[in-house]
Amino acid sequence: MHTLFHRLAVIASIIAFCVIVLGAFVRLSDAGLGCPDWPGCYGHLSWPIEAHAVEKANLAFPERPVESHKAWKEMVHRYLAGSLVILVLVLNFISWRPENRRAGFRLLSAILLALILFQAALGMWTVTLKLWPIVVMGHLMGGLATFSMLLWLAYRSGSAAPNRSLMQIRPLIITGLLALVIQLALGGWTSATYSALACPDFPTCHGVMWPDANFTEGFALWREIGVDYEGGVLDLPSRIAIHITHRTGALLVFIILGWLTFKMLRNFQTQSAGYVLGTLLVAQITLGILNILLYLPLPNAVAHNGVGALLLAMMIWLLHRSTPRKA
Length: 327
Description:
2 domains
C-alpha cells in the first residue's frame, strides 16, 4: 500500500466530491454568473462587499449588478476547486517517488493534472461564454471525470484485493458504469438547458405518456456564442425532448443497476456492496421523482447531484474490485 499517496488521493477525492456538490448548488441557485469575470469577482480576489466597492463594480459591469448572495457562492466554489488543483500537483510530485515508480501512478497523475487544468478552462468559459450549454455540461462531466480518476488512484493505491465474485460479473459492472455515465451526461444537459421542469407531472408529461417533443432542436449541441443562456433559450417542445430522454435513461439505468444489485445480493461475498448500491439507486430515483413533484426544491436538486456522484463512486469501486491485479 502506498500510504502517503493513498491518503492524499482520498482527501482529493473528498474535496472533488464537495466541488461537484457545491457546483450543483451554485448552478441550481442561479449563481453561475454571480461573478461576471474570471478568475476574480468584479475585479476583486473575493467579491465586493463595501458600499463603495459595490458601486464601482456596478459601474464596471452595468449589465450585471452585484448580487452578493450569488457572488460568494461562485467564489467559494472557485477557491475550493483551486485547492483541488494544488492537491493534484502534489500527487504528481509524489508519484515520482521511488516506491511509486512501478505502481502506474505517474501516467494517471499526469493525465489527471491535464484534465483538471482543462476543467479550470471550462470553468472560465462557463462565465465568459455566459452559461453556453455545451460548456456547462462539459464542466460538469469534467468534474465527474476528475472525481473518477482520483477515486481510481485512491482505490488502486489502497490494500483491497480483487473480489473473485465481482470478477465473475465484471461485464455487467462495466455495462452499468457506461449506462450511468451516459445518464449523468443527460442529466448535465437537462440542467444546462433548464429542462428539469419541462414536464411538471409524473409519470406522465403534461398529462400524456409521450408529448410533442423536438429532439432535433433539443439535442443541437452547438449553439450561437455570445447569447446569455441563463434561464435557457429553448422552446417547450425542445426542453420536453431533453426531459423525457433523461427519464427514459433513468429507467434503463434502474433496470441495469437493479439487475446488478440483485446479482450481488444473491452472493454472500458481495451482499454488503449490493445493499449499498441498491440504497443509492433507490435514493437517486426517489430524488429525481421528487424534483418533479415538488417543483425542483434546491436541497432536493443538490442532493440528486450528490447521490449521482456517489453512485459513480460506487460503480468505480466495483470496477476496481473486479479488475485483476498484475503481479
